[in-house]
Amino acid sequence: MEEFQSITRFDIESKLTNKMLSVPRIISSAMLAGVMIFLLVIIYLNSSRLDENIVLPEFSQTAALIYVLIFAALSVYTAFLYVPKFYLNPRYLKDRLAKGLKDKQGNPITDPIEKLLNIDLTFMIIRLAMLESIALFAMVILFLSVSEGRLDSEPSLWLLVIHFAIQAVFTLNNYLPKGRYIDRIETQILAPLREI
């Protein structure tokens, strides 16, 4: 992995143009927007409900789904923490780079910095998809709660929005600022490659 030994922070910074950042920014923003729109629909439906005297059934779909969400959230958040250890393992990175990476047109990527950016983009999509899955699941439960009329009688269900907040804070903090991209590529991808 000699091609990565001489890469400096300045090299990454000069190669990482706003055009190159547009794809990851669009992807991460779209993942946030989808959940946010779902949440806005839920808020609208909850505020526009006409029948305030809904008789709640004894068995609630939401109650059962909350247990599933707890298990899913624990599983996904644990995987979210451990995926970097596997995905950014120096041996895995070396194998992936040895097989070759391809650009959008299917041509081999030869520039070492573009290879690093490609690895980071794939890694970003995996991690953000994990966060989005739990946030969307929580929104589905909220949607069902609005349908059953439970949000007025059980306002604690609004705590499910925390999963969207986790997704939003992580995305805004890690995937929109250019400096975070450079830091992540330098410390999480490039540093392990230099150890090989």
What's the layout of helices and strands?
Layout: H1 9-15, H2 18-47, H3 61-87, H4 90-99, H5 112-148, H6 150-153, H7 162-174, H8 178-195
Helix pairs in contact: 2-5, 2-7, 3-5, 5-7, 5-8
| Average pLDDT metric | 86
Total of DSSP H or I helical runs spanning 4+ residues: 8
User: How would you describe the shape?
Assistant: elongated
- The tally of structural domains comes to 1
Radius of gyration: 21 Å
Q: What is the helical fraction, as a range of percent?
A: over 70%
SSE series: HHHHHHHH
The strand count comes to 0
* Spatial gap, N to C terminus: 7 Å
The structural class is mainly alpha
Uncertain regions: pLDDT < 50 for 5+ in a row? none
The major β-sheet equals: none
Strand content: under 5%
Keywords:
mainly alpha, 74% helix
Summed up:
This protein has 196 residues and is mostly helical. It is 74% helix and 0% strand. The protein has one domain (15-46, 77-195).
Notes on the structure:
This protein is mainly alpha-helical. It has one domain (15-46, 77-195). The chain is 74% helix and 0% strand. The chain contains eight helices and no strands. The chain has helices at residues 9-15, 18-47, 61-87, 90-99, 112-148, 150-153, 162-174, 178-195. It is elongated, with a radius of gyration of 21 Å. It starts with 8 loop residues before the first helix and ends with a helix. The mean pLDDT is 86.
